[in-house]
Amino acid sequence: MWYLYVLRCADGTLYTGVTTDLARRCAEHNTGRGSHYTAGRRPVQLVASWAFADRSAAQAAESAFRRQGRSRKLKLIAERLPFLGSSFLDLERMA
């Protein structure tokens, strides 16, 4: 299973990525090893995730998500809406 995930950075910006392990990847971002973008915007918080069958599907979803406007992204997160056929994952249950 591959996940499209969204982080909220300390400066309020959103960062998206894909991974097979949400907890590990979020920890990497918070220690400065996740990406150049998030390294200077810590701490980050995982605010959304959707599961996809394979890496290709997750990367296609990431590309589509990045093309959404900020207000649409925030709506998907706030209303816990499905994205490209994948249900919003309950992050509290996964923790």
List the helices and strands and how they pair.
Elements (H helix, E strand, L loop, with lengths): L1 E7 L5 E6 L2 H9 L5 H4 L5 E8 L2 H12 L3 H9 L12 H4 L1
Antiparallel strand pairs: 1-2, 1-3
What's the level 1 CATH class?
Alpha Beta
CATH architecture annotation name: 3-Layer(aba) Sandwich
Number of helices: 5
What is the general shape? globular
What does this structure look like?
The protein is of the alpha+beta class. The protein has a single domain (2-94), classed as 3-Layer(aba) Sandwich (GIY-YIG endonuclease), CATH 3.40.1440. The chain has five helices and three strands, in the order ββααβααα. It has a three-stranded antiparallel β-sheet with strand order 2-1-3. The longest helix has 12 residues, at 55-66.
Condensed summary:
With 95 residues, the chain is an alpha+beta fold. The chain has helices at residues 22-30, 36-39, 55-66, 70-78, 91-94, and strands at 2-8, 14-19, 45-52.
Jot down its keywords.
single chain, 95 residues, alpha+beta, GIY-YIG endonuclease, 5 helices, 3 strands
